[in-house]
Structures are given as structure tokens and as C-alpha cells.
Amino acid sequence: MRWLALILSLLLALPAWADPARLDLGGSALVATGRGWGGPRPLELRLSLTKAVPYRAYLVGDPARLVIDLQDADLGMARPQDLFGANLASAIRWGPWRDGWSRIVVELPGPYRIDTAGQQARAALSQITVALAPVAEEDFAPRPSAVAALRDVPEPADLPDPGPDDRFTVMLDPGHGGFDPGALAEGESEANLVLVFSLELRAALQARGVDVQMTRQDDSFVALEQRMTAARKARADLFISLHADALPQGQAAGATVYVWNPAADSRADEQLVTRHGRDDLLAGIDLTGHDDALTGVLMDFARTDTQPRSRSFASWLVSRMSLMGIGMHGRPVQGATYSVLKSPDIPSVLLELGFISDHDDRANLLNPEWRGRMVQVVAEAITGWARDEAARAAMLRR
């Protein structure tokens, strides 16, 4: 009992700074502080903490991001998407970093500069405020490399230098083909338009050092299940299905990115099990001999990793489209139950380049200049996301 009393007295004698600062989500926010006048709006990030802590704030590029490192701070179980004003940023991520630090990364809707950054401490509360002002692209002055800044390593090449079995691979999936032309409008077919775009995107990605595979390279039909199986056999790191659908006039226009919504169809796992051999469902995991319930559990477990990564890539795409002035749907990222998004082990998105039924979208798809801009957008999103994934993997290994 005397030892217990001694331990308790020592714990009670610990100074207040022994407890980490905690984030008060209710008192924190990302707010717009002015008009954008056709471009990004001035922003202010306010972080409410239970006490003052050492911190640093800086900008990185590709894409533009605000990084805030907090020493001796516990962000707890708070979710970035619950931050008030989170919709003003393309994406927000946070969590423990290393050596007693936590990190917050805010993906910005364009190039910015840090106008002011300060911390105001009160009795039981501290607020860090970082004010951001939009700037022209040529005036954007981030740290030399996003990956170098995030990882504290020397400047890398465009993509990590992979080994023969670890090369970053993208599977491009031009929708439809063969006897299935997809949507039709004014003598143009969706299958042909997305194939032309995919071939142009492949050339741009290969020039950037990316290994590109395609589900089809000509006007041929490939079954939906075979498209996913081809991606798995290629050990693809990312699967992008490309489309240009049609809807009744006036119902939809602009580019849209779809990700798998696991809550949208409870039968998805059952359908996937039926359509594929079990040993084809998860790369490296042979499910032969296991019942449907276990198969579904394993796929759900795999999706806990791939789903956030799919959403992350969708955010990269939307961010780059915004920066390049690409017209987007009113809701640029949406959930769906398309078959090509069901793969539990490969981050996957379906990109509607536009709607062939819309006059302006159709004109864009036929315009080499617009396609060139869109190719640049998608290529930059892929390489930027790949660098982010490499940094993420490296931090997980630490």
C-alpha cells in the first residue's frame, strides 16, 4: 500500500505539461474570410487546443497543401471531415507523425501564401490561426518538394525509383467497346471518345515513368469482370475507368469522379463472389474453401485500406481539375455501385470525362486542346497521388 501511495503522489506531482494538448474540434474551423473573385477564396485555419504547443506551418506543392506540425498534441479520435468548413478544402488529413509530433495536411483549392500565423494562449485554451491568401501560380512559393518536405528526405525524382516488382502501375479502362458503343450523340460514340482519351493519357503517363496497362486498346469488348481481373493480374496500384455517358438534356454536365459506396448495395459482396473464382478476389489471398461470410469479411477488411485511398485519389483529381479550370459537375465526387469499382484490393475510381449528351462536354471531348489539358490534369493527379502513397508507405514502415 505504501508503494501505491508513493506512485499516486508522484503522478499527482507531475506538471501540467505532462499531458498532451488535445484538439477541441468544436472550437476549430476552416473558414473563408473574403471573396475569391473568380478564383480561390482567402482562407483561415483555426485550431483550438487545450494548451499552447510548439508548432510550425508551411506550404508544399504538387498539389498545393498547407502542413502544420504540432508538438506534444493529441488529435484523438476526431475526424478531419467533421471539421467545420472542411468542404472548403479538397482534402484534410491528420494524425500522429513521429517523435511526439502530430501533423495536419490541408489540400488547398489553389496556390496560396501564408499571410499570418500565430498562437494565442488563454487560461485553459490556445488557438493557432493560419491565414492564407490566394496568389498567382507564378507567385506560389512552397518548399522545393512536397515529398521532401513531408518526409525530410532529399529531393526525389518524379516517382520513387522502384524495383522490378514494385513499379507503379496504372490500369486504364476505356469503357464499353466492340458491340457495346456506350452512349451515342451526334454521330459520336462514348466507346470511341474514351478510347482516344485513354491512348493520349497512356502516352503522357509513360513519359512520366508510369507503367500503364489498358483493358482494351482498340474497339473490342471486354466483360466487366475481366477488366478487374486484368488489373489484378497486372498488379495495378490504381484502376481508372473512363466514361462519357449520356443523360436527358440539362440533367448533367461536367466531369465527375465516382468511388465505391459500400453502403449503397448490401448484395455487392455476394455478387462479386458469384462472378469471380474465390482465388481471384484478393490478390495474394486464396479464398478457396471459405464460406461467403468469411469472404465478405476479408473483402471488407481489405476495403478499410483501399476505400480511403480511392477517395484520396478522387480528391487529387478534383483539385487538379479545379486548378486547371476544368468544368465539373455540381457534385464532382459521388458514390456509386458500378461493377468496376467493387475491387476490394485496388484503389479504383470511375471518371466521367463529361456527358456526351451535353453539347459543351461533347465539344470538349472532340477538342484536342481540351483533351490535352485534361490529360495533363489526370497525369498530374496520378503522379502526385503516387508520391503521396510512397510517403505514406514509408511512414507506415517506421
Automatic annotation (TrEMBL):
<protein>
    <recommendedName>
        <fullName>N-acetylmuramoyl-L-alanine amidase</fullName>
        <ecNumber>3.5.1.28</ecNumber>
    </recommendedName>
</protein>
<dbReference type="Pfam" id="PF01520">
    <property type="entry name" value="Amidase_3"/>
</dbReference>
<keyword id="KW-0732">Signal</keyword>
<feature type="signal peptide">
    <location>
        <begin position="1"/>
        <end position="18"/>
    </location>
</feature>
<dbReference type="InterPro" id="IPR002508">
    <property type="entry name" value="MurNAc-LAA_cat"/>
</dbReference>
<keyword id="KW-0378">Hydrolase</keyword>
<dbReference type="InterPro" id="IPR050695">
    <property type="entry name" value="N-acetylmuramoyl_amidase_3"/>
</dbReference>
<feature type="domain" description="MurNAc-LAA">
    <location>
        <begin position="228"/>
        <end position="383"/>
    </location>
</feature>
